[in-house]
Amino acid sequence: MTAPQATPRRVLVVRNDKLGDFMLAWPALACLKQADAALHVTALVPAYTAPLADACPWIDAVLLDPGDGAPRQAQRELLEQLRAARFDALLTLFSTPRIAWLGFRAGIPLRLAPATKWAQLFYNHRLAQRRSRSLRPEYAYNLELAAALLTRLGITPPQVAPPYWPLDAATRDAERKRLATALDLDLARPWVFLHPGSGGSAVNLDLEQYAHLASAIARHAQASPHWLLTFGPGEQPAAETLRAALGEHGLDAQLVPSRDSLRDFAQGLAAADLLIAGSTGPLHVAGCLNLATVGFYPAKRSSTPLRWQTCNDAERRLAFSPPPGKDSESDMSRIDLNDAALRISALLDRQAARSGS
């Protein structure tokens, strides 16, 4: 007689803030599922990032977090959902008092989070990380937490590697053909996606700086790239202004058409050979796709290129920030854009050679 199979252990993972933060949780999610495919992983996320949580291959179910400002009834309903799910473990990648208290009240037996602030009192397992020192990438801190949880579950943590959003080649080809048809693009030329918006999370290059950068890259690159501008909600006017500025530099740029959902927008980035952006959500989506990325960051300790490093392969990423100094850490005009353009054009040429563009 065959012994009955054990019920899969159920893990709730919380990363309920911005898009970029959520994408940097994907390596930790991959670590959990690759350690034991039988683990049932549920993600608690806000409605904004839920479409990408649905697309994540490492997540089995999605719960919507109504947020700190939600009415009491919505908070009670979430608590009842957590109790009914009978989770075995809670992994909070960024702890807040509300989530800490929620996990405690839900009776989740194993609750692990960074040891930070007074909210840690509601967790029975804590890991000291001191993230404010920004000594490691954010995704590495998340991986460390996932490994600690697995160890407490008696599971050996695996080594994981990009891509953390492993789209198949057919999907990328379909995205390129869709965009080529919509914008009359040459599939043989490299495609550079430029996302000038920031979502307000970090300082960024201004539009004229991006235009100057693109002009310098075009001068140095061996192949003439297509310039494709992406934008988020409320950012289309800025993208149109940048398109006009690029035109003044002799570059023909086009706006990537809007998509029906955040998931469609994110998956559409797979068409790029290279994505250039500030430290914002689309940059980290591209990192999960293991695309070539170029990020522009302030030099503030909380926002450094190391702390918010993309999670793609090291040879596929470049990062630039102002020189250190209290008076210049957020002064993006201090970045040497001509030097950046030389390094970016070399990366673009390597990517074009790899892809056959």
UniProtKB/TrEMBL annotation:
Q: What's a single GO MF annotation on this record?
A: ADP-heptose-lipopolysaccharide heptosyltransferase activity
Q: Does the keyword 4Fe-4S apply?
A: no
Supply the InterPro entries for this chain.
Glyco_trans_9, LPS_LOS_Heptosyltrfase
Name this polypeptide is given: Glycosyl transferase
Q: Which PANTHER family match?
A: GLYCOSYLTRANSFERASE HI_0523-RELATED, TETRAACYLDISACCHARIDE 4'-KINASE-RELATED
Provide the GO biological process annotations: lipopolysaccharide core region biosynthetic process
One family from Pfam that matches here is Glyco_transf_9
Gene Ontology, cellular component aspect: cytosol
Alphabetically sorted, this entry's keywords are: Glycosyltransferase, Transferase
